[in-house]
């Protein structure tokens, strides 16, 4: 119990990224983040061409421009913004997860597999000590969405991409899903704490931190951004591989580092894992159309 | 139904079925907007024998957003004299701010946290900036700019 309300919640690696930026870049970045947190942006936006992102950096960092061009050479054409509210990783990941189920060749099968996975994840939540009354409404928000992929709603419709976007723009549904994924991430770390403990550090002071304290303060609390450990835990819990493209102004060759959070070696002919686009302190979704 | 009503209904059912922990009493929960509970600290503490009332206000996004919680200050109840409690009843506690709140917490866990905040107190004294804060503080503690001691 203390009265300090002023602590910024950046992760250590995020601080390192930010330290590597020049003053101009930092100003610009800070302004971008401030604009985004002004809560005028939708929680999750329509897809936009990467040229829009490029324009934003045209008067700024040459390294970012080179990196955006690199992404375009790699075939990425669009991106989808999320609001910079600290929940952006969880929101982006939830969206690409449900979307990937919807666009899979056998979506009824994938949706029912996903539902059983969600159902069995409740055992971890219980094992981690969360009460049913704490998680069930949040669980329902995500499970209902997945259920609609294959089972028609009362009006006979199944989930469309525009309905999916609408769900993620609706604060109650969208934030409930974010909370469920936070609880799932936390439970995954808590029930397997021996394996995660060596990787848990206080994001501000860099000291090792006990799993419970890490989870309470940096996973379960809304608005706390995710770093490697949370990404690893959540992709594992959902059995869902993703890549993160680091558009971070690092390096002079203008390439972008892609980090794989891979659950299993990809099956032959399977589509590439969805990609989240990381800029210091923020995650959006990167797309190929 | 708003997410807050669904959750509060369950918290209320839990309280009615299983009761509240020692020293915590539900005073009033007639709707899903405002609840009152009382807390007291048992054992040998600076607040032995004193009963305090807490007012909880919930917005429709609760428990995703923290409730507004304050000690009741009226003819009957007073706020505890404590370094983290202003004399208008506003409380400085990390779990009640956006930095420390999590949807895992609920009405009872807040009461327990505040009980232990009182129980562990070593010195009965108000926050150093009490008078200035109380003069300029808005009525709702969630709307106060959070510059606590």
CATH topology of chain B: Ubiquitin Conjugating Enzyme
Looking at this structure, what is the CATH superfamily of chain B? Ubiquitin Conjugating Enzyme
Number of strand elements of chain B? 4
- What top-tier CATH class of chain B fits best? Alpha Beta
What's the number of domains of chain B? 1
The number of helical elements of chain A comes to 12
Q: What spatial order of strands do you see in the largest sheet of chain B? A: 1-2-3-4
In what range is the share of β-strand residues of chain A? 5-15%
Characterize the structure shown:
By secondary structure, chain A is of the alpha+beta class. Chain A folds into two domains: 131 residues, Phosphorylase Kinase, domain 1 (2-Layer Sandwich); 153 residues, 3 helical TM bundles of succinate and fumarate reductases, CATH 1.20.1300. Helix content of chain A is 53%, strand content 11%. Chain A contains twelve helices and six strands. In chain A, strand 5 and strand 6 form a beta hairpin. In chain A, helix 3 runs antiparallel to helix 4, helix 6 packs antiparallel against helix 7 and helix 9 packs across helix 12. The N terminus of chain A is likely disordered. Chain B has 149 residues and is an alpha+beta fold. Chain B has a single domain, classed as Ubiquitin Conjugating Enzyme (Roll), CATH 3.10.110. Chain B is 24% helix and 15% strand. Chain B is built from three helices and four strands. Chain B has a four-stranded antiparallel β-sheet with strand order 1-2-3-4, with helices on one face. Chain B is globular. The model of chain B has no long low-confidence stretch (mean pLDDT 92). At the A-B interface, helix 7, helix 9 and helix 11 of A face helix 1 and helix 2 of B.
């Amino acid at each position: 119990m203390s009265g300090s309300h002023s602590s910024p919640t950046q992760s250590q690696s995020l601080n390192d990224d930010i330290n590597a930026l020049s003053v101009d870049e930092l100003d610009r970045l800070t302004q971008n983040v401030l604009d985004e947190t002004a809560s005028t942006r939708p929680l999750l936006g329509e897809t936009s061409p990467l040229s829009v992102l490029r324009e934003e950096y045209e008067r700024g960092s040459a390294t970012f421009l080179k990196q955006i061009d690199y992404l375009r050479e790699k075939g990425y054409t669009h991106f989808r913004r999320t609001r910079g509210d600290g929940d952006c990783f969880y929101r982006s990941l939830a969206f690409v997860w449900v979307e990937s189920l919807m666009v899979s060749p056998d979506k009824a099968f994938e949706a029912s597999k996903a539902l059983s996975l969600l159902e069995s994840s409740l055992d971890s939540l219980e094992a981690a000590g969360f009460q049913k009354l704490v998680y069930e409404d949040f669980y329902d928000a995500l499970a209902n969405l997945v259920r609609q992929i294959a089972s028609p709603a009362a009006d006979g419709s199944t989930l469309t991409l525009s309905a999916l976007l609408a769900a993620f723009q609706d604060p109650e549904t969208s934030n409930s899903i974010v909370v469920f994924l936070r609880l799932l991430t936390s439970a995954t770390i808590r029930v397997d704490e021996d394996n995660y403990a060596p990787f848990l550090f206080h994001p501000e002071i860099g000291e090792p931190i006990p799993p419970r304290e890490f989870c309470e303060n940096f996973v379960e609390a809304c608005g706390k951004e995710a770093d490697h450990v949370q990404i690893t835990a959540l992709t594992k819990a959902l059995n869902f591989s993703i890549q993160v493209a680091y558009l971070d102004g690092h390096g002079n060759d203008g390439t972008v580092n892609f980090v794989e959070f891979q659950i299993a070696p990809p099956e032959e002919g399977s589509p590439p894992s969805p990609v989240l686009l990381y800029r210091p302190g923020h995650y959006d979704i990167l797309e190929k159309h | 139904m708003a997410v807050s009503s669904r959750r509060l209904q369950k918290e209320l059912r839990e309280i009615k079925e299983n009761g509240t922990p020692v020293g915590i009493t539900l005073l009033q929960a007639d709707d899903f907007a405002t609840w009152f509970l009382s807390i007291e600290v048992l054992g040998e503490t600076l607040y032995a024998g004193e009963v305090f009332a807490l007012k909880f206000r919930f917005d429709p996004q609760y428990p995703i957003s923290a409730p507004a919680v304050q000690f009741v200050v009226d003819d009957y109840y007073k706020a505890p004299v404590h370094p983290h409690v202003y004399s208008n009843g506003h409380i400085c506690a990390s779990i009640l701010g956006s930095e420390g709140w999590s949807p895992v917490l609920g009405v009872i866990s807040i009461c327990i946290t505040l009980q232990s905040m009182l129980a562990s107190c070593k010195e009965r004294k108000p926050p150093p900036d009490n008078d200035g804060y109380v003069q300029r503080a808005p009525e709702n503690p969630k709307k106060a700019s959070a510059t606590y001691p």
